[in-house]
Amino acid sequence: MSSLQFDIAHLLAGSLVLASFMMLYQVRLYALLNVYALHAGVLALSVAWQAYVQQAPHLYLTALIALVFKAIIIPVALHRIIKRLGIHREIENVIGIGLTMMAGIGLVALSMVVMLRVTPGADALAREDLAFALSVVLLGLLVMVTRRNAVSQVVGFMSLENGLVLAATGAKGMPLVVEISVAFSVLIAFIVIGIFLFRIRERFDSVDVQALDRFRGERR
Amino acid sequence: MNALRDILSQGAQMLLVLGLAPLLTGFVRKVKARLLRRRGPPLLQPYRDLVRLMRKDVVLADNASWLFRVIPYLMFAGTWVAASLVPTFGNGLLFSWTADLIAIIALLGSARFFQALAGMDVGTAFGGIGSSREVMIASLAEPAMLITVFSVAMIAGSTQLATVAEFMGSDAVGLRVSLGMAFVALTIVALAENARIPVDNPATHLELTMVHEAMVLEYSGRHLALIDLSSQLKLLLYVSLIACVFLPWGMAPADASVGRFLFGALLYLGKLTALGLLLALFETAIAKMRVFRIPEFLGAALMLALLATLLRFVSGSL
User: DSSP secondary-structure letter at A90?
Assistant: First the structure.
């Protein structure tokens, strides 16, 4: 593999991590959705590049799924959900943005250290993809943890799934069936979460998950 | 003969940065005005301002200490030395062994320290608020700058600007994510350090927002001229730092002919023009930030720089 091919793969995977950080940085819901669409677009590009490098045509299909579903349909659907819910458009963070960013950097460093330690024998491209994918997954989890609004938690979940797809495409010889079933299970999860959003909203007049704590009798 | 050429080229570099700094500021102002469909001051207006200020008498506050009078010279000297260390048209000049990125940051940092002291010296409220804001911005910008330097140094294998520029100009670089991130981080730091628009707007005297202006409000005459000139030098320094690290093409090597040096100087002028145009475009496209948003803005720079270092670490250890 030429070094240019590796560099481009590195660039795309690195931009995916950067897009995750942009997601952490956002304070408005619509902006968060736009960054999510960007995230999915970068994922699609990255997967398409992997398909080209590995000469695995079925990965092009995965890239197409990522582009159509994750970069177009889901953000549009979430936009409409926000509009119908009529919720407050500023996201309340649990901790400040600066601290969140620091935590994110720590997570990225952690995933790099772990991945580089445990995969010394693997192919360089796969190693690098795995390290980035783990950090995208952890950053998605961080988005879910640091946001109180249920919609932004959904976005965090979706970005976490993007990291999984990146890891799956980095590993050579992943059958197409697995990828498609992962993609569809995420779609189903999205629909279920969407229904839950409306239920939460109906019950508590807000999508702030702190309402759930109060409902269970927990105290802050 | 060699020694003579070295001295001449280094001297040319020192005079070049001093002569070009007001022109760059004037150029950015002019482009900004044209973009806003105003006519704008003539290109040479900053020179005229400096000359006029030089001619005027100095008015000192009654309780100004000796520090207040010395600081403009200290600031100017520190900034000028730093600006003449950054390679502009030629690589490997006489002083290039001292042109260490960390030394340049230290020079700028001490200039800023003195400026903040001068802001508080006379004891007016504005000076104090300006100094405290400047130090807040500096304490956020400095780590971002240092980590950017680390990531660039990790890629190039040195913190010496001549070596960095030589490496970046060679074919060994390839496509690097870390470099892109370091570039954005350095740009954000440069905007904050030079009091450009999203962070500070030196064109106004609005007490809610002013940072740099509030500190130098008490200065007049030749002291003000020196301070203005050193802030113009600082802008030139950052622009040529970006040009030197990220666009180092066409720099003359140490033992080049005169024609090669002239070509390098011409190319350097082109780079300054292009970056000045970009700066003016960016400044007209964006609004001034609230003071309390600045930590987040600079935090983004710090984050980018850290990420650049981490990514470099990954691709380096593969």
Answer: B
Class of residue A154 by CB neighbours under 10 A (exposed 0-12, middle 13-18, buried 19+): buried
Pick from B73, B212, B69: which is nearest to B135 by CA?
B212
Alpha helices (runs of H) in chain B, residue ranges in sequence order? 2-35, 45-55, 66-85, 101-121, 125-156, 161-169, 177-193, 212-215, 221-246, 258-285, 294-316
Structure tokens at A70: 């994750």
Distance from CA of A79 to the nearest CA of B (A): 26
* Cα B58 to Cα B227: distance, rounded to the nearest angstrom: 13
C-alpha pair distances (Å), A152 with each of A93, A144, A147, B282: 10, 7, 7, 30
Q: For residue B312, which residues of chain A lie inside 8 Å, CB to CB?
A: none
pLDDT band at A88 (very low <50, low <70, confident <90, very high): low
User: What does pTM read for this prediction?
Assistant: 0.87
Alpha helix (H) ranges present in A119-175?
A: 124-146, 150-170
Q: Measured between alpha carbons, how far is B302 from B279 in angstroms, rounded to an integer?
A: 21
Distance from CA of A16 to the nearest CA of B (A): 11
Closest to B116 in 3D by CA, of B143, B92, B100, B134? B134
ipTM of the complex: 0.77
